[in-house]
Design goal:
The chain is α+β, with helices and mostly antiparallel strands. It has one domain: Cytidine Deaminase, domain 2, CATH 3.40.140. It is 27% helix and 20% strand. The protein has five helices and five strands, in the order αββαβαββαα. Bound molecules: tetrahydrodeoxyuridine. The site of tetrahydrodeoxyuridine has 15 residues, from helix 2.
């Protein structure tokens, strides 16, 4: 079940259209990133592929720790990598897991970290079969708190 919304560029905040080809490549890269997951405790590997407006793609996987609470999700790993390489204008992120029955969805903490970089970008939720659905961050985190709220003080 692919639910391509077609051309996703809304003309304002994204420099390039998120074409079906680009989505497929992002989905594939999120699956490749999953192979690097360090998840000996949960045995729940996750991969993420983050696309920026310049067309750069940053990968991330979950990295768990013997001190359980220090584990970090794939999505945040990808975002930290991107920001540390000078990229923070994001167009889309694809997320992959081994769950076959449902599309993987980001946890609340990852949604909030994504929100730091805008609400109008795309989250590609996948299944191992390669099928996906696409939501905006606004869909996943409505009525959110973001950096511009601080500027209102
Ligand atoms: N996890 C992610 O990396 N991303 C998600 O979207 C959901 C959960 C990780 C966190 C933890 O390492 C494992 O999956 C089980 O929760």
């Amino acid at each position: 079940m692919n639910e391509d919304p077609g051309v996703l560029n809304n003309g304002e905040s994204h420099d390039r259209a998120l074409t079906p080809d680009l989505i497929h490549s992002l989905v594939q890269k999120s699956r490749e990133a999953k192979a690097f997951a360090h998840c000996p405790y949960s045995r729940f590997p996750v991969g993420a592929a983050l696309l920026d407006r310049d067309g750069r793609i940053f990968l991330g996987c979950n990295v768990e720790n013997a001190c359980y609470t220090l584990g970090i999700c794939a999505e945040r790993t990808a975002i930290q990598t991107a920001v540390s390489k000078g990229s923070k204008n994001f167009t889309a992120i694809a997320v992959a897991s081994d769950v076959e029955e449902e599309f993987i969805t980001p946890c609340g903490a990852c949604r909030q970290v994504m929100r730091e970089f805008g609400s109008e970008w795309w989250i590609v939720l996948t299944k191992p079969s390669g099928s996906y659905i696409i939501k905006t961050l606004e869909d996943l985190l409505p009525f959110s708190f973001g950096p511009e709220k601080l500027a209102m003080k």
